[in-house]
Amino acid sequence: MFKIINAQFIAPGIKRFVIEAPRIARKQRPGQFVIVRVNERGERIPLTIERSDAEKGTVNLVVQSIGKTTTLLNSLETGDSILDIVGPLGKPSEIENFGTVVVMGGGVGTAMAYPTAAAMKKAGNRVITIIGGRNKDLVILEPEMRGVSDTVYVTTDDGSSGDKGLVTDRLRQLLENGTRVDLVLAVGPIPMMRAVADMTRKERIKTMVSLNPIMIDGTGMCGGCRVLVEGKSEFACVDGPEFDAHRIDFAVLVQRNAMYRDAEKQSLEDYRRECEYEKQKAAAPGEAEAACTLEGK
Amino acid sequence: MPPTKSNNPVPNKERIKMPRQHMPEQLPVIRAKEFTEVNLGYSAELARQEALRCLECAKPTCTKDCPVGVKVKEFVQLIVDGDFMAAAAKIREDNVLPAITGRVCPQEDHCEGACLLCKRGESLGIGYLERFVADYEQQHFDVKSIVKATPTGKKVAVVGSGPSGLTAAGDLIQKGHQVHVFEALHEIGGVLVYGIPEFRLPKKIIREQVDIMRAMGVVFETDVVVGRTVTINELLEEEGYDAVFIGTGAGLPQFMGIPGEHYNGVYSANEFLTRINLMHAYEFPKYDEPIVDFRGKNVAVIGGGNTALDAIRSALRLGAGKAYVLYRRSEAEMPARKEEVKHAKEEGIEFHVLTAPLEFQADEKGWLTGARCQKMELGEPDSSGRRRPVPIEGSEYVVPLSVAVIAIGTTANPIVQSTTPGLATTKKGYIQADETSQKTSRKGVFAGGDIVTGGATVILAMGAGRRAAAGIHEYLTNGEW
Q: Alpha helix locations (H) across B217-263?
């Protein structure tokens, strides 16, 4: 059991957990992740480590409610526990003084990019950060990113914060302005990472993306997280999660992530119905049960 | 040791004529739809009947051929005497997981294959008897009966809780050492829980065996990936362990390297079985981990080992319409236990031997639609001693499939090796270890099981765990490396 020391929403549907996990806190390096199982009947899902504190023995996880498991996780509060957390997994980001590094975070992906951005800055790089989201509320970790970057650009789809547009629009401008870029790290939704890869491929700029395919064990044992890298299968959990964006087959990534879409939908609907029932029961015990019986459950 | 006086009233020449007692089984039509155990176990009466068949050889070949050296003759005599708890204790001297080996060990390759009764008919049902005794012990187990060894003050870390790790832990705790087992997954048992399905080895059995070890004093810690969460060096230098046993298994699934292995619907056996066994995907949506819909679909497993049969029999239970085994050699070369092949056929699995897939085919969305296969014929023996499959020109055909499970073996997981400086490995990445003491190139570090030998069986891994425990005990006692 892993105790939640603190749980707070940092954006609508996005929660930061500070969790007691001394072994993981001690070993975590930027770019690594954990696998979490919430309860006895839970699935195992990979999650981003935003940062860790070796002395306090805590790790921070940033979770966006998308499916059942993440929604269930985000219903947990300070003082609750998570059944299993294992890690840190995956290869750490390659950190050295590359020169100028552009760190790009889309939505909750910014949490994964943050520790690498901090390490890049520490290694002497000039760090240009571009983070974005659908709107102002969904741009996360802006102050934190400002603390470890030379420049921070914010983009939103609706223009409610920073530039109106996509993170890739800002990258294009940088490149068109002749900014010398030695490395790009992009973490976010697959279409964003694919767009970044297409843009930097022409310019021959080394580009790393952090992938988040379906995983189970996270140690290389199951092979479920295989991604096609120049026609050959590699495992995101042990060979990644960071890969050279120019070698990745993004279409296969999209295809494989859709494998359980129906089941995921069903899980989430069942869970929401359950929550609704619990809520009704708490409000008016007798009625909720009667309603449920009528539905034929 | 002179044979103890036998209480078996049946004259030797009569014993040879006695038929082997059949294992009661769940009916194929019922079990093909359920994950409950196929073999139902001997009753006390059946066990005693079977035990009477033992010839009580002066030099028992069964014990000689057992990788952990179970004293078969002695425990079988105790069954004849009706003292089942004593029989269990006798087995436990050499085998800490009898309820497990009694179910999954390939006895025909070891004890039963060596049994003299084979020459006249069927061997003694040693596996069935072992299972009976172990289950009896489980039902009548009393924690108070555990006699703890005098503590030596030494601490041993065991990495991995599969068959080799559990065996090493069980032997070491009985020598009085402190034992701490680290497991990467959330359940104890390694391949026993993620690899072997409920219908062959119920999880309850593993949990009970582990509980006995807990009662003996073994400490288990889950969610620790040694090499990532903590390193071998840290265990030795910072956490105060005097020795480490590495039993991490052959964890990485092999793919065939043919086109289309990334299509949706193509699984490694490890992933498919992990979803089913560890994650209970067959109970979705009661459990959250999903699996693709098998109902009415054509499903094939590629491979001919126990894992392949476990996978295809699981697929059948998930509702597969047609379930095939595609194997590139003939049935004679299949490495699977004979009993599993028999059970699979009874359940309606179709065996397509001398068949090898060349590529997978999919629809426009990337979902599997079939496998283009080629027929093979057997040529000269290869390095494994088995006749090499040779493709027959012009024999290609397409098998329509919605799901394919690749069960062609595993390779070494590199996480521990790559994070442990000075640990010598083979060209294929397995850990090099001495064949008797299981010592590695690093002082205080021992290794055994599939991470040393490559994919093998539960009992061979257990044998390695036993040898390692003996090696560790010797090292901790005299300090010599």
A: 232-237
